[in-house]
Amino acid sequence: MMLTCKEVTTLVASGEIDDASATQHALARLHLLLCGDCRRYVEELRSLRLTARDLLHSELDTARLAVLERRIIELSQSADR
After folding, report:
1. Phi-psi category of 47—alpha, beta or left, where left has phi over 0 and alpha has psi -120 to 50?
2. Per residue in 32-60, pLDDT tens?
């Protein structure tokens, strides 16, 4: 039984993938191998999490915020291609 895109993205976005059963985890990994859209979504989430973490752990100066903003825009534009 293959997981749907909605099931996989929900598992990943909610963080439940870490607590999923071995079978569900394997099915999600298989889906990600086969589905480029879900792989892109997971990569975008990872990039957003890293960017948010960088923002939270850095001083909130305007130069750093501008760099992070450009990074988010570039990532979203590359995902649209």
Report:
1. alpha
2. 999 999 999 999 998 888 888 877 776 66
